[in-house]
UniProtKB/TrEMBL annotation:
Keywords: Cell membrane, Lipoprotein, Membrane, Palmitate, Signal. One of its GO terms (cellular component) is outer membrane-bounded periplasmic space. The keyword Lipoprotein applies. This is Curli production assembly/transport component CsgG. It comes from Aquifex aeolicus (strain VF5). Residues 1-22 form the signal peptide. The keyword Cell membrane applies. It comes from the Bacteria. It holds the Pfam family CsgG.
Length: 462
């Protein structure tokens, strides 16, 4: 009886094969795939490339990646290897990033060179990186495909004897998550470390072809799940990853390397004339909220609260400065009429010099909170705004005047009258800030020649 039943089922499926495949084409491509294309959002754009990016194949650490196959559950085995999944996702992400205009791509075959260089960072960090500015790495940490059938417990049944045609029933959902890291190659700084997710909760039902859940699936990961919830979840993941990466790098100055070299060659070919950029100079608020030059300070400043460390008022070049005497210091000033959400300007003059201390001398100013995202830090010859590196400038052993200007949601940093860079923040960032100005000075030992000084502080509003 049982063999007869099996033969009958096989005969029925063979006899309906062409109809089933036709139904799949009409239902899946005509309804679901169309819906996906309509829902696919537009990628963010950059007006010039930031640098060249290379991505290594993502590793799959999800429980579903078992050996050389991906297993979603009983009868849910996909014979696409985790390596195909990882390589496919990284290729898709890089392709999408290139379309934004923010990056140029370097083929993955050069990754061994990149890997060797990253391992050498700190010893010979600038030795022949072959034009790669950014390295994209990641691990797939979640991979789920769930189905609920019509009238209870829907399934996806692999039918290898029909060339990979599978029955798709009911409503399904898909979920994929990626731990993403974007590394700047020249200094090994991690610019981004986030978990990105892609989800789908819809699936049309019908009979589909093309080996979606068969024994052999060609064309890689994306082709394997074409017109399924996993395709939509993957698209969703790629979009959110691109949006996150572009938001992080959009305001970075172009990296030195292949992109900069190509721009140099282009300039040599052009003979149009001199290019004049618009002049950018710092603006001053018309209402002074707080001003301090420490001219009356004898030993320690009394106009600021010392939260950590030890500071002294020292004299240099006929001016009084607040100096960290060693080990790092944090000071705070409450400004009564200060509203961080409004437009304002913070001015200050600093001096720093590296002596015999082990740690880098630094001067840092933060708005609203000690750990505020709205902060400017000067260390070595580098200036950072909210963790984003601006233009480098020789700062060691020299006096510099800084203007931090907030207009709308954009904060600009000027040093000695020239723009170093700017960054746009979320309005929510400013809403969370209080009426404080924090000053952090880091110097190992003032007697050993480590100097971190600040003076002529002025906060004004518009």
């Amino acid at each position: 009886m049982f063999p007869l039943l099996v033969i009958s089922v096989i005969f029925l499926i063979f006899s309906c094969g062409p109809v089933a495949q036709q139904a799949s084409t009409q239902t899946t491509q005509g309804e679901y795939a169309k819906d996906i294309r309509q829902r696919e959002p537009e990628l963010p754009k950059c007006d010039r490339p930031i640098g060249t990016i290379v991505a290594r194949g993502f590793k799959c650490k999800a429980a579903q990646c078992a050996g050389d196959r991906i297993v979603f559950g009983p009868n849910y085995t996909v014979e696409v290897s985790p390596k195909v999944l990882g390589d496919g996702l990284s290729d898709m992400l890089v392709t999408a990033l290139v379309k934004t205009g923010c990056f140029r791509v370097l083929e993955r075959e050069t990754l061994q060179e990149i890997k060797e260089e990253l391992e050498m960072l700190g010893v010979q960090p600038k030795k022949a990186l072959k034009g790669a500015d950014f390295l994209l790495t990641g691990s797939i940490t979640a991979l789920e495909m769930k189905a609920s059938g019509m009238g209870g417990g829907g399934v996806v049944v692999p039918l290898p004897f029909l060339g990979g045609v599978g029955v798709k029933a009911g409503k399904s959902s898909a979920h994929i998550a990626l731990d993403l890291r974007l590394v700047r190659v020249r200094d090994a700084e991690v610019l981004l470390a986030e978990t990105v997710e892609g989800k789908s909760d819809r699936w049309k039902f019908g009979v589909g072809g093309g080996g979606i859940f068969g024994t052999t699936i060609a064309g890689g990961w994306f082709e394997a799940f074409k017109n399924t919830p996993m395709e939509e979840a993957t698209r969703d993941l790629i979009y959110h990853a691109v949006k996150l990466i572009v938001a992080q790098v959009r305001d970075l100055p172009p990296e030195k390397g292949s992109v900069s070299e190509e721009k140099t060659e282009a300039k040599q070919e052009q003979t149009a004339g001199i290019i004049k950029r618009p002049s950018r100079t710092p603006v001053h608020g018309d209402k002074i909220l707080w001003e301090e030059d420490f001219s009356t300070c004898r030993v320690k400043p009394t106009s600021l609260k010392i939260l950590k460390g030890s500071v002294e008022c020292v004299e240099m070049n006929g001016k009084k400065w607040v100096a960290d005497v060693g080990g790092g210091a944090v000071l705070r000033k409450y400004v009564n009429n200060f509203n961080p959400e409004k437009d304002w300007t913070l001015e200050y003059t600093f001096y720093k010099k590296q002596g015999k201390g082990m740690y880098a001398v630094a001067v840092e100013v933060s708005i609203g909170r000690e750990t505020s995202a709205v902060n400017v830090k000067h260390v070595r010859n580098e200036t950072y705004l909210g963790g984003q590196r601006l233009k480098d400038k020789d700062m060691e052993g020299k006096v510099h005047t800084v203007h931090v200007v907030k207009k709308g949601n954009t904060v600009s940093v000027f040093m000695d009258g020239k723009l170093l860079g700017e960054r746009e923040f979320s309005p929510i960032t400013f809403k969370r800030l209080k009426r404080y100005v924090y000053i952090k000075l880091y110097a190992g030992d003032i007697d050993g020649g480590d100097y971190a000084f600040i003076t002529d502080i002025k906060l004004s509003s518009f």
